[in-house]
């Protein structure tokens, strides 16, 4: 028990190493690697031969029109697609920290602890704010009050929600506004100390003010976490991400530094999409 | 000039009338409206006639004009033989127990007319029905919720699942007497439990299982998928997710729908008449046991079966009628209370969980 407590109270090692400068120009090392990845829903192929790398402590944005496979790929990274009965992998691998996550030996529970996820529709549990945040810890059997209290404060601060809810931690998570609920979901994901945060259109249901807050949060989380975000909003991709990947019809069309993708895309489909000519 | 003439308000010359005119369509409309209305009122009329008759006649048995206004003998004693006799010019009606005391006291032998089952009360029947309901619902809920979780959360859709669902649905259409016969063959004879509480529990439980399973499945499916995904994404195993974030929110729905099952269990005669119910048993279920577990292997009396016995198995007369209506009244009251409890529970639970 004390070991777990130490783990939580200790600073994350990588925070100290590169919190000073998280510029993407600094030599980044790939944390997630997708190789030759084909993916099917039943007979319908959703992803075609995707090859890409997502760098540690960077924000990678997936953009592209609806149905292009970006959410599918995101949900493959923590194997949430396992829940879909007809989903299957045709070919290829996804590696997280060098380990193939589709290896039969992989424990999805351990994987999902390291690869957290924030969903498009904010989905706080119908429990108190406090219980929402500590859920991930409680299911690991961590019940010591001091540990949980500390985690709640740390995670809510991390999700920039602490000041707004500190006085009403025992009220229902559903009583919060849409933007607060989404930040609560982020806080909840932070509590299990993931290395990677997957965000599936986290702002699509939020108003501009709430969106700005979540984007600000993504910026600050970058120092400690590797973030992959799916977005329909190209301005958002431009604002928050270091690298951008453009998907179209299940294929990765182009990937590169965000400025490069938006300023001088190599592919004409990419250019057509980001300039708003289709999609 | 020309424009001025065309702009003349033409409607003013021949105003459109919205006044009603008799028409065929309207007549048909009227006729059907009355047919529907009569149909509904007819049902209301029938059911009120039934309820009022039972309440009026049963009320005469259950209530009395003097303190404590409830006929305590009827509610707290066992069914007994009624003795009707004349003694020193006065007419008496007494239950067996009272009559013996009376005779003892006077020290005389009195000749009486006896009527089986028409004296005493229905206390053992109330006890038996409550026990049958509690036990069978416990079994049905356990089995039902387990299989509903499997069906809605774990099993993969396909032909096998459809076959299982179909057979569960068909089970709901099986007549209760078939369950009764099945219970006799399976529990009473094959398992050798005899006519017992256990056999009754399982027979009734099997009968309400379809209701419980479909209600539980529906409640489980009503829980947003997002809650399951969120739990799993936080490192929960499937069972942990179900236990912490699906089942608790589905429970109100499961319980309320199951209470409909309770009303059915309480009211069924056919499944218990061969498996659990005795026409008469002197002792209450917990009395006269050699070993504690004999409790489960003794039959009980039950309200619906008692109604059947007093209205079809014994010679009819003015005295049995009182028992029939009194029992029916108490029985209706118990079922109505259960239904009311379910409505209150639903209101309470609904306000508690919302998403």
Structural commentary:
The complex is a heterodimer of chains A (279) and B (355). Chain A is of the alpha/beta class. In chain A, 38% of the residues lie in helices and 24% in strands. Chain A is built from 12 helices and 10 strands. Chain A is globular. The relative contact order of chain A is 0.17. The N terminus of chain A is likely disordered. By secondary structure, chain B is mainly alpha-helical. Chain B has 14 helices and 3 strands. Chain B has a 3-stranded antiparallel beta sheet with strand order 2-1-3. Classes of the chains: A alpha/beta (279), B mainly alpha (355). At the A-B interface, helix 4 and helix 8 of A face helix 9 and helix 10 of B.
Approximate shape of chain B: globular
Q: Whole-Å distance between the termini of chain B?
A: 67 Å
CATH class of the largest domain in chain B, anyone? Mainly Alpha
Helix content of chain B: 55-70%
Helices, strands, pairings?
The complex is a heterodimer of chains A (279) and B (355).
Chain A: H1 2-9, H2 13-18, E1 30-41, E2 44-55, E3 59-63, H3 70-77, E4 87-96, E5 99-100, H4 108-114, E6 115-118, H5 129-138, H6 145-158, H7 162-165, H8 178-191, E7 196-200, H9 208-221, E8 226-230, H10 234-240, E9 243-248, E10 251-257, H11 258-263, H12 268-274
Parallel strand pairs in A: 3-8, 3-9, 6-7, 7-8
Antiparallel strand pairs in A: 1-2, 1-4, 4-5, 9-10
Helix pairs in contact in A: 5-6, 5-8, 6-8, 8-9
Chain B: H1 2-6, H2 24-62, H3 72-76, E1 79-87, E2 90-95, H4 96-106, E3 113-120, H5 123-154, H6 159-172, H7 176-190, H8 197-221, H9 225-233, H10 238-245, H11 247-267, H12 270-273, H13 303-313, H14 318-352
Antiparallel strand pairs in B: 1-2, 1-3
Helix pairs in contact in B: 2-14, 5-8, 5-11, 6-8, 7-8, 8-11, 9-10, 11-14, 13-14
